[in-house]
Amino acid sequence: MALDRWIALILLGIFVTYGYAAWFTMDDNLAPFMRRNPIWPSTFPKVLSVLGVIACLIVLFGLEKSEPKEPEIDYRRLTDYNLGQAIALLALMVVYALCLRPAGFIFSTSAFLILGPIILGERNWKIMIPVALTATFVVWYLVQEVLGIYMRPLPGFIGG
């Protein structure tokens, strides 16, 4: 059996277990007034489990297969690709995740959105910096003010 089918079989087991938990165990402790709601806390997990089982069965039965074509990435020629950029971007993601709390959301996200394109080769500073700063402040405002979820905007030593 091909690797994709083995992975689909493993994921099928995970989705069936997840679906069992969503369909039979999650709603047992609901309060009586919540049982009349049209959407329960288990609605999204139920939908995810059904869609996951369907996707796994499609892969297992080979319904997604088409005519064989040349692979886009040849693992035997990995040195021909820009691995340095990919590894640097992954490292930047890890540094972003680690700096999010101590450095604050605004500084960390702005730095990530500015340094990421630099790693990938973008040099249009006039567009990159305003877009990164605008996106950072819009996301912070929406999460902080609209949704009411506190996110430390500034580093702790500045008063964030």
UniProtKB/TrEMBL annotation:
UniProt keyword Transcription present: no
Signal peptide: none
UniProt keyword annotations, A-Z: Membrane, Transmembrane, Transmembrane helix
Pfam families: TctB (PF07331)
Annotated TM spans: 6-26, 47-63, 83-100, 105-121, 127-143
InterPro entries: DUF1468
Organism listed in the record: Cognatiyoonia sediminum
Name of the protein this chain belongs to: Putative tricarboxylic transport membrane protein
Domain DUF1468, first and last residues per copy: 6-151
The keyword Lipid biosynthesis is assigned to this record: no
